[in-house]
Write a structure and sequence with these properties.
Layout lengths: L25 H19 L12 H6 L1 E2 L7 H7 L7 H22 L1 H25 L1 H4 L2 E2 L3 H14 L4 E6 L3 E6 H21 L8 H21 L44 H19 L6 H13 L1
Antiparallel strand pairs: 1-2, 3-4
Protein backbone atom coordinates (compact mmCIF):
# COMPACT_ATOMS: atom_id res chain seq x y z
CA UNK A 1 0.00 0.00 0.00
CA UNK A 2 1.09 3.60 -0.61
CA UNK A 3 0.46 4.59 3.00
CA UNK A 4 3.69 2.86 4.04
CA UNK A 5 5.77 5.23 1.90
CA UNK A 6 7.65 8.01 3.73
CA UNK A 7 5.71 10.69 1.83
CA UNK A 8 2.40 9.45 3.23
CA UNK A 9 3.42 9.11 6.89
CA UNK A 10 2.64 11.88 9.37
CA UNK A 11 6.33 12.01 10.25
CA UNK A 12 7.50 11.85 6.62
CA UNK A 13 9.24 14.62 4.72
CA UNK A 14 5.97 15.98 3.44
CA UNK A 15 4.86 16.71 7.01
CA UNK A 16 7.84 18.64 8.32
CA UNK A 17 10.10 15.93 9.70
CA UNK A 18 13.63 16.88 10.69
CA UNK A 19 16.14 16.80 7.81
CA UNK A 20 18.50 14.92 10.14
CA UNK A 21 16.11 11.95 10.02
CA UNK A 22 16.38 11.65 6.24
CA UNK A 23 19.21 9.83 4.40
CA UNK A 24 21.96 12.12 3.22
CA UNK A 25 22.32 12.71 -0.48
CA UNK A 26 25.43 11.29 -2.12
CA UNK A 27 26.70 14.68 -3.22
CA UNK A 28 26.21 16.00 0.34
CA UNK A 29 28.20 13.07 1.77
CA UNK A 30 31.05 13.73 -0.68
CA UNK A 31 31.00 17.48 -0.05
CA UNK A 32 31.02 16.98 3.72
CA UNK A 33 33.97 14.58 3.54
CA UNK A 34 35.92 17.06 1.40
CA UNK A 35 35.25 19.94 3.80
CA UNK A 36 36.04 17.92 6.94
CA UNK A 37 39.25 16.57 5.41
CA UNK A 38 40.31 20.08 4.41
CA UNK A 39 39.70 21.38 7.94
CA UNK A 40 41.81 18.54 9.36
CA UNK A 41 44.43 19.25 6.70
CA UNK A 42 44.64 22.90 7.78
CA UNK A 43 44.91 21.94 11.45
CA UNK A 44 47.33 19.01 11.21
CA UNK A 45 49.38 19.68 8.07
CA UNK A 46 49.39 23.41 7.19
CA UNK A 47 52.55 22.92 5.13
CA UNK A 48 50.46 21.09 2.51
CA UNK A 49 48.84 24.42 1.60
CA UNK A 50 52.01 26.26 0.56
CA UNK A 51 55.35 25.71 -1.11
CA UNK A 52 56.20 22.97 1.41
CA UNK A 53 53.57 20.66 -0.13
CA UNK A 54 56.09 18.18 -1.58
CA UNK A 55 57.56 17.51 1.88
CA UNK A 56 54.27 17.64 3.77
CA UNK A 57 52.38 14.69 5.23
CA UNK A 58 49.70 14.97 2.56
CA UNK A 59 52.19 15.35 -0.27
CA UNK A 60 54.20 12.29 0.75
CA UNK A 61 51.44 9.89 1.81
CA UNK A 62 48.05 10.85 0.39
CA UNK A 63 48.73 12.63 -2.92
CA UNK A 64 49.25 10.90 -6.26
CA UNK A 65 52.86 11.68 -7.13
CA UNK A 66 54.15 10.53 -10.50
CA UNK A 67 57.73 11.08 -9.29
CA UNK A 68 57.38 8.71 -6.34
CA UNK A 69 55.02 5.92 -7.35
CA UNK A 70 54.97 3.23 -4.66
CA UNK A 71 52.85 0.41 -3.29
CA UNK A 72 50.64 3.11 -1.76
CA UNK A 73 49.33 4.12 -5.18
CA UNK A 74 46.02 2.14 -4.94
CA UNK A 75 45.21 3.97 -1.70
CA UNK A 76 46.44 7.32 -3.03
CA UNK A 77 44.17 7.08 -6.08
CA UNK A 78 41.28 7.43 -3.61
CA UNK A 79 42.75 9.67 -0.91
CA UNK A 80 44.06 12.34 -3.29
CA UNK A 81 40.46 13.10 -4.29
CA UNK A 82 39.61 14.47 -0.83
CA UNK A 83 42.63 16.71 -0.18
CA UNK A 84 43.18 20.18 -1.67
CA UNK A 85 45.98 22.65 -2.16
CA UNK A 86 44.29 25.89 -1.10
CA UNK A 87 41.06 27.50 0.04
CA UNK A 88 40.29 28.59 -3.51
CA UNK A 89 40.94 25.03 -4.75
CA UNK A 90 38.39 23.44 -2.44
CA UNK A 91 35.92 26.31 -2.95
CA UNK A 92 35.77 25.75 -6.72
CA UNK A 93 35.42 21.98 -6.35
CA UNK A 94 32.82 22.36 -3.59
CA UNK A 95 30.71 24.58 -5.85
CA UNK A 96 30.97 21.96 -8.60
CA UNK A 97 29.89 19.18 -6.24
CA UNK A 98 26.99 21.25 -4.97
CA UNK A 99 25.52 22.44 -8.26
CA UNK A 100 26.38 19.59 -10.62
CA UNK A 101 25.97 16.85 -8.01
CA UNK A 102 22.51 18.10 -7.00
CA UNK A 103 21.39 18.12 -10.62
CA UNK A 104 22.85 14.69 -11.40
CA UNK A 105 21.92 12.61 -8.36
CA UNK A 106 18.13 12.44 -9.02
CA UNK A 107 18.98 10.87 -12.38
CA UNK A 108 21.47 8.18 -11.33
CA UNK A 109 20.95 7.78 -7.58
CA UNK A 110 23.01 8.15 -4.41
CA UNK A 111 25.19 5.03 -4.60
CA UNK A 112 25.87 5.54 -8.29
CA UNK A 113 26.96 9.16 -7.85
CA UNK A 114 29.41 8.16 -5.11
CA UNK A 115 30.82 5.44 -7.36
CA UNK A 116 31.00 7.89 -10.26
CA UNK A 117 32.94 10.35 -8.09
CA UNK A 118 35.55 7.77 -7.13
CA UNK A 119 35.97 6.21 -10.58
CA UNK A 120 36.09 9.58 -12.36
CA UNK A 121 38.80 10.69 -9.95
CA UNK A 122 40.80 7.51 -10.58
CA UNK A 123 40.52 7.90 -14.34
CA UNK A 124 41.58 11.53 -14.05
CA UNK A 125 44.65 10.44 -12.09
CA UNK A 126 45.53 7.86 -14.75
CA UNK A 127 45.36 10.53 -17.45
CA UNK A 128 47.63 12.83 -15.44
CA UNK A 129 50.08 9.98 -14.78
CA UNK A 130 50.14 9.15 -18.50
CA UNK A 131 51.01 12.75 -19.39
CA UNK A 132 53.64 12.74 -16.64
CA UNK A 133 55.29 9.63 -18.08
CA UNK A 134 55.50 11.21 -21.55
CA UNK A 135 56.40 14.77 -20.47
CA UNK A 136 57.63 14.61 -16.86
CA UNK A 137 59.04 18.14 -16.89
CA UNK A 138 55.56 19.55 -17.42
CA UNK A 139 53.15 17.14 -15.72
CA UNK A 140 55.08 15.27 -13.02
CA UNK A 141 54.60 16.02 -9.35
CA UNK A 142 52.15 15.42 -6.49
CA UNK A 143 48.46 15.91 -7.23
CA UNK A 144 45.41 16.41 -5.00
CA UNK A 145 41.85 17.59 -5.48
CA UNK A 146 38.34 16.57 -6.50
CA UNK A 147 38.58 18.26 -9.91
CA UNK A 148 38.74 15.01 -11.90
CA UNK A 149 35.59 13.75 -10.20
CA UNK A 150 33.75 17.06 -10.68
CA UNK A 151 34.63 17.01 -14.38
CA UNK A 152 33.28 13.45 -14.45
CA UNK A 153 29.97 14.72 -13.07
CA UNK A 154 29.94 17.45 -15.70
CA UNK A 155 30.66 14.96 -18.48
CA UNK A 156 27.75 12.71 -17.45
CA UNK A 157 25.20 15.48 -16.97
CA UNK A 158 26.12 17.31 -20.18
CA UNK A 159 26.03 14.16 -22.35
CA UNK A 160 22.74 12.97 -20.83
CA UNK A 161 21.03 16.33 -21.33
CA UNK A 162 23.01 18.34 -23.90
CA UNK A 163 20.15 20.78 -24.55
CA UNK A 164 19.46 21.60 -20.91
CA UNK A 165 20.56 25.08 -19.91
CA UNK A 166 22.51 26.08 -16.80
CA UNK A 167 23.67 29.36 -15.35
CA UNK A 168 27.41 29.85 -14.89
CA UNK A 169 29.15 32.65 -13.05
CA UNK A 170 31.76 33.81 -15.55
CA UNK A 171 34.83 34.93 -13.59
CA UNK A 172 32.62 34.31 -10.51
CA UNK A 173 30.77 37.55 -11.25
CA UNK A 174 28.91 37.57 -14.57
CA UNK A 175 25.94 35.13 -14.85
CA UNK A 176 25.85 33.40 -18.22
CA UNK A 177 23.18 30.94 -19.41
CA UNK A 178 24.58 28.15 -21.59
CA UNK A 179 23.47 24.78 -22.93
CA UNK A 180 25.20 21.83 -21.34
CA UNK A 181 26.53 20.70 -24.72
CA UNK A 182 28.33 24.04 -25.05
CA UNK A 183 29.71 23.69 -21.53
CA UNK A 184 30.97 20.18 -22.31
CA UNK A 185 32.77 21.13 -25.51
CA UNK A 186 34.00 24.37 -23.95
CA UNK A 187 35.47 22.44 -21.01
CA UNK A 188 37.02 19.94 -23.42
CA UNK A 189 38.59 22.74 -25.48
CA UNK A 190 39.89 24.53 -22.38
CA UNK A 191 41.49 21.30 -21.10
CA UNK A 192 43.19 20.64 -24.45
CA UNK A 193 44.38 24.23 -24.82
CA UNK A 194 45.66 24.24 -21.24
CA UNK A 195 47.62 21.05 -21.89
CA UNK A 196 49.16 22.56 -25.05
CA UNK A 197 50.08 25.74 -23.18
CA UNK A 198 51.57 23.64 -20.39
CA UNK A 199 53.72 21.76 -22.88
CA UNK A 200 54.94 24.97 -24.53
CA UNK A 201 55.64 26.74 -21.24
CA UNK A 202 58.99 26.61 -19.50
CA UNK A 203 57.42 26.62 -16.04
CA UNK A 204 54.52 24.36 -15.01
CA UNK A 205 51.44 25.99 -13.50
CA UNK A 206 50.99 22.91 -11.27
CA UNK A 207 47.40 22.39 -12.39
CA UNK A 208 46.32 18.82 -13.20
CA UNK A 209 44.89 19.56 -16.66
CA UNK A 210 45.29 15.89 -17.57
CA UNK A 211 43.04 14.90 -14.67
CA UNK A 212 40.40 17.40 -15.82
CA UNK A 213 40.46 15.94 -19.31
CA UNK A 214 40.39 12.37 -18.01
CA UNK A 215 37.42 12.97 -15.73
CA UNK A 216 35.46 14.74 -18.48
CA UNK A 217 36.11 12.00 -21.03
CA UNK A 218 35.18 9.28 -18.55
CA UNK A 219 31.89 11.06 -17.97
CA UNK A 220 31.21 10.96 -21.72
CA UNK A 221 32.23 7.27 -21.80
CA UNK A 222 29.89 6.54 -18.89
CA UNK A 223 26.92 7.87 -20.85
CA UNK A 224 27.97 6.30 -24.15
CA UNK A 225 28.66 2.79 -22.78
CA UNK A 226 27.76 2.20 -19.14
CA UNK A 227 24.29 3.77 -19.15
CA UNK A 228 22.88 0.95 -21.29
CA UNK A 229 24.27 -1.76 -19.05
CA UNK A 230 23.11 -0.36 -15.71
CA UNK A 231 25.90 1.99 -14.61
CA UNK A 232 28.78 1.24 -12.26
CA UNK A 233 26.64 -0.74 -9.81
CA UNK A 234 26.43 -3.59 -12.33
CA UNK A 235 29.99 -4.51 -11.35
CA UNK A 236 29.07 -4.99 -7.68
CA UNK A 237 27.18 -8.20 -6.84
CA UNK A 238 23.97 -7.87 -4.89
CA UNK A 239 23.26 -4.26 -5.86
CA UNK A 240 20.51 -3.27 -8.29
CA UNK A 241 21.45 -1.82 -11.64
CA UNK A 242 20.77 1.84 -12.29
CA UNK A 243 17.59 2.50 -14.27
CA UNK A 244 17.53 5.65 -16.37
CA UNK A 245 14.20 7.13 -17.37
CA UNK A 246 13.91 8.97 -20.64
CA UNK A 247 12.64 12.51 -20.39
CA UNK A 248 13.77 15.77 -18.86
CA UNK A 249 11.72 18.18 -16.83
CA UNK A 250 13.31 21.03 -18.75
CA UNK A 251 13.03 19.55 -22.22
CA UNK A 252 10.33 16.92 -22.50
CA UNK A 253 11.28 15.55 -25.93
CA UNK A 254 15.01 16.06 -25.69
CA UNK A 255 16.03 12.47 -24.92
CA UNK A 256 13.91 11.01 -27.70
CA UNK A 257 15.61 13.27 -30.23
CA UNK A 258 19.11 12.01 -29.45
CA UNK A 259 21.01 9.35 -31.35
CA UNK A 260 20.93 5.87 -29.80
CA UNK A 261 24.55 5.76 -28.59
CA UNK A 262 23.96 8.31 -25.84
CA UNK A 263 20.33 7.57 -25.07
CA UNK A 264 19.46 6.63 -21.47
CA UNK A 265 17.73 3.32 -20.99
CA UNK A 266 13.96 3.74 -20.96
CA UNK A 267 12.19 2.06 -18.08
CA UNK A 268 9.03 0.21 -19.03
CA UNK A 269 6.73 0.13 -16.00
CA UNK A 270 5.59 -3.35 -16.99
CA UNK A 271 9.15 -4.58 -16.32
CA UNK A 272 9.16 -3.27 -12.76
CA UNK A 273 6.96 -4.77 -10.08
CA UNK A 274 6.28 -4.63 -6.37
CA UNK A 275 8.64 -2.68 -4.14
CA UNK A 276 11.00 -1.88 -7.04
CA UNK A 277 8.19 -0.19 -8.95
CA UNK A 278 7.11 1.82 -5.91
CA UNK A 279 10.62 2.91 -4.89
CA UNK A 280 11.92 3.65 -8.39
CA UNK A 281 8.87 5.07 -10.10
CA UNK A 282 6.17 6.12 -7.63
CA UNK A 283 8.21 7.57 -4.74
CA UNK A 284 9.80 10.37 -6.81
CA UNK A 285 6.36 11.35 -8.14
CA UNK A 286 4.86 11.46 -4.63
CA UNK A 287 7.80 13.53 -3.50
CA UNK A 288 7.18 15.92 -6.39
CA UNK A 289 3.49 16.21 -5.43
CA UNK A 290 4.40 17.01 -1.82
CA UNK A 291 6.75 19.78 -2.94
CA UNK A 292 5.09 21.23 -6.06
CA UNK A 293 1.49 20.01 -6.03
CA UNK A 294 -0.38 17.53 -8.21
CA UNK A 295 -0.79 20.10 -10.97
CA UNK A 296 2.97 19.88 -11.65
CA UNK A 297 2.79 16.26 -12.88
CA UNK A 298 3.49 15.43 -16.50
CA UNK A 299 1.30 13.13 -18.56
CA UNK A 300 3.83 10.32 -18.15
CA UNK A 301 3.86 10.72 -14.35
CA UNK A 302 0.07 10.64 -14.21
CA UNK A 303 0.10 7.39 -16.17
CA UNK A 304 2.61 5.90 -13.72
CA UNK A 305 0.30 6.74 -10.82
CA UNK A 306 -2.57 5.05 -12.66
CA UNK A 307 -0.33 2.05 -13.15
CA UNK A 308 0.48 2.08 -9.41
CA UNK A 309 -3.19 1.98 -8.50
CA UNK A 310 -3.71 -1.06 -10.71
CA UNK A 311 -0.79 -2.84 -8.99
CA UNK A 312 -2.15 -2.19 -5.48
Amino acid sequence: MLDDRPYMRPGGPGFGSSPMQQPWSGWAILLTINVVVFILQVMIDPGSLDSRFGNSLVGQWFAVDSEQISWLLPMQLITYQFFHGSVFHILVNALGLFFIGRALEPIIGRREIIGLYLVSGVMGAFFQLAFAMILPAHFAGPMVGASGAVFGFLGVLSRLFPQREMFLLLFFVLPVRLKLSWIFWGSFAIAIISIVIEIRSEVSDRTAHGAHLGGLLFGAFYVAVLVRSGGLMRFLPGLPKVRFVSGDSAKGTEVRQRSDWRKPKVVDTDEVSGEDFISQEVDPILDKISKQGIHSLTERERKILEKARSKM
